[in-house]
Amino acid sequence: GQNIDQPTEMTATEGAIVQINCTYQTSGFNGLFWYQQHAGEAPTFLSYNVLDGLEEKGRFSSFLSRSKGYSYLLLKELQMKDSASYLCAVMDSNYQLIWGAGTKLIIKP
Amino acid sequence: DTAVSQTPKYLVTQMGNDKSIKCEQNLGHDTMYWYKQDSKKFLKIMFSYNNKELIINETVPNRFSPKSPDKAHLNLHINSLELGDSAVYFCASSQGILDGANVLTFGAGSRLTVL
What is residue B51's predicted lDDT score, i.e. its pLDDT? Predict the structure, then answer.
């Protein structure tokens, strides 16, 4: 079966760096997405990786290793507003998105 | 100017009733989706339409019927509501379904509570 694994919850301190991991086992691979979802709101797109390596976008970076079935989202200079759930999703060989359950990130002052 | 708008935002109803949720996008996207997010926060695809044609129809009870009158609209009708239908339903759209075109823009969600 297809599977996406992410930690359920993480806690970090304001101003620090946090890495949220995502491992996947899917039938084929056509890209990996990260979305941010604040409580009670809709998910919003953060990043898309289809090739191995690091993609940087301001304070957020996303890394992909296709051979290891692994990605991480790196958040730097954490702010209180970064408290949210972070969803990892993989597009399989049929171009269908397989979603992880999300990682709830709690930022403490 | 909302990109993906869905109504109503909240819906509280009794078991056995029929209800509809409407969705409209003004992004010019070709593909629209309905997702269900349950209390455990898993996002599950229900349906997807590309240019008004159904392309994804996951294992969803046939009490759920989508309708796409044009590529900017995708409505969801639910018959004979059950307690287990309580969830947040998200409408979303994307430029297409391949690769990076599959970036989703979500509506604000419709929270359905079945009593």
Answer: 87
